[in-house]
Amino acid sequence: MRVIIVTEGGVNSGFGHITRCTSLYQAFEDQGVLPEFIVNGDETVKELLAGLNFKILNWLKDRGSFLNLLQTIDIVVIDSYHADYDFYRMISEAVRIPVYIDDNKRIDYPSGVVLNGGINADELNYPLRSGISYLLGAQYIFLRKEFRGVSEKNIIKREISEVMITFGGDDSKRMTSKILSVLIKHYPKVIKNVIIGKGFKNIKELEKLKDAGTNLIYYPDGNGMKKVMLDSDIAISAGGQTLYELARVGVPTIAIATADNQLNNIEGLKKAGFIEYAGWWEDEAVLQNIVKKIELLKDSALRDEMAEIGRSLVDGQGARRVVEEIIRLRSQ
User: Fold this and answer.
1) Looking at residue 177, which CATH number applies to its domain?
2) What distances in angstroms separate CA 35 from CA 6, 72, 81, one per listed residue?
3) Cα(75)–Cα(72) distance, rounded to whole angstroms?
4) Are both 97 and 228 inside the same structural domain?
């Protein structure tokens, strides 16, 4: 059985697709299958993919080379915001099991398997038609292997003493520095655990800004992220995949939307009661809202409730379920 995982990433497009697809790569390995990453990316992704089987290829432009790759492939998993319908159709016609990772019903997909592990994926009204199977909902949210087994967080503290700030691998909207400034001003005694990704372009600014209570955590892997989450009383996060890792660990979270494709995640997790939403990153009141939400979360009973909701929503087994279902479909 030959499997490739097709995605994109880099300084300009971010690293979220690669991070979440790594969880499927690991789950295939657990089933005795060694996949290959085919990544449309720059040099920065090589370190992220170190130790994995991968190839850098601009498959959007070099479709001929990509099509040649497909001749010996059984399963293609693709996670992209840039591939068009014709590209998906090419995959659908070339391999036995094409799997399309989707977040917001981006296009009308051809025959294959549509995978959306978002909490409210069932509400997107995907079209039911012959030739398409769906894996939808939080039971299929695929997290890195470090989040499969998570020791329960210590008892919720009476007071907030540590806050995690996490905005992905590149923080293209530069929210980290703005939020850190707010926390230093309003909560100087609180420890700030600041995640710095490989694509950050303002690291010197953050190093100059930090106070004695700021921990700058450079390029953490899955275990590093999990440790910071376990140490932190609350988190302030963008609205991507990290929200589900925070839910898995049980970290009450204040979310900020930094991209349109995050809004479904945020809406679903807010409705479920796991997150407080501070707003769109460009909103004039977003920083003021963060302070208001922190004040709200000083209620330890509320934080305890949010933590329980998060852990109940995400059990960390989604990647295993996805891969087992893909293999089952191939065996039919």
Assistant:
1) 3.40.50.2000
2) 10, 13, 21
3) 10
4) no
